[in-house]
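Side project, low priority. Logging it here so it doesn't get lost.
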Amino acid sequence: MYVAVKGGERAIENAHRLFADRRRGDRSVPSLTLEKIAQQLAFSVDRVMSEGSLYDRELAALAVKQSAGDLIEAIFLIRAYRTTLPRFGASRPIETGSMLVERRISATYKDMPGGQVLGPTFDYSHRLLDFMLAAEGEVPEPSRLENIPDQPTPGVATILDREGLIEPHAEFDEHAPVEDLTREPLDFPASRALRLQNLARGDEGFLLGMGYSSQRGYARGHAFAGEIRMGEVEVEFFAEELGFDIPLGRIKVTECQMVTQFKGSAKVPPQFTRGYGLTFGQNERKAMSMALVDRALRWEELGEEFMAPAQDEEFIMSHSDNIQATGFVEHLKLPHYVDFQAELDLVRRMRAEAAAHQNQDASYNEAAE
């Protein structure tokens, strides 16, 4: 039972004002602008957009600023704002094969069609603090990049497709109703499309841990990063009154396709299987984790044995959402005075009964002696 705290409006208002003051910090230090946050804290902004399910860099930057850098709080703000927006339709599925890539790597083929494009990444840094950044010096311009493809590049999986060594893509029915996790409650068993929606909104840390568990303690096999690509794709909307697709603009996404060896079954020969991840912005860790967990959740479809937490659909989908998790954890800060008093009385009675039993046992032992 929760107890309402009376007479606390002034205290709450002052708490909010104090937080706003702490968020602003020293007034002699220039305030962060949304443009600076969007440009210079891009990974935080990308995560907030992905897990908040709203692609808007300026709004995500505002949420990061308002939350003082608490990304889960920022995601909460974005989701709350998203619920106020009218929905007038659904865009066409994006064509990642037509992506104008900024980064494209594969751990399976060195010489892949279109070439490897390292792009902007931490991967090859020494993880040493760069004190030049503390001096706020100008960052040198990068060298001219000659090897970035200026045309669409085929996916690496097409190489395996030619030999029939990887499972075929599932058939897409554009007329089938689209499940929407933001409007309908979770139901089990869930389709793969619904699972991918859930994973796309899921907490990066949770999915990272689950993906790690699929390789370490409960590993079934070693996944390979078939391809990770990041770049811009065009979003289109079909206008019924016009009868054709209208381009709405471009968004930046990260796509990951993991390939995992599959020993085959009575119906399917040995081959590679797919795990898939897609996020807004540059968010490779999340996309990779998503792909690993997606593949683990397909165990029943592929006729595999259930043996790991990452394969438990209900567990993964019910606990991956950081906003729901935050609500349940942080509700513990609400007053529980009546509940606690009830349990306090119960513990006292249990202790008294236990002491009485001990006294009876002691008396019985003395009499026996």
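Brief comment: The CA atoms of residues 78 and 120 lie 26 Å apart.
Revisit when time allows.
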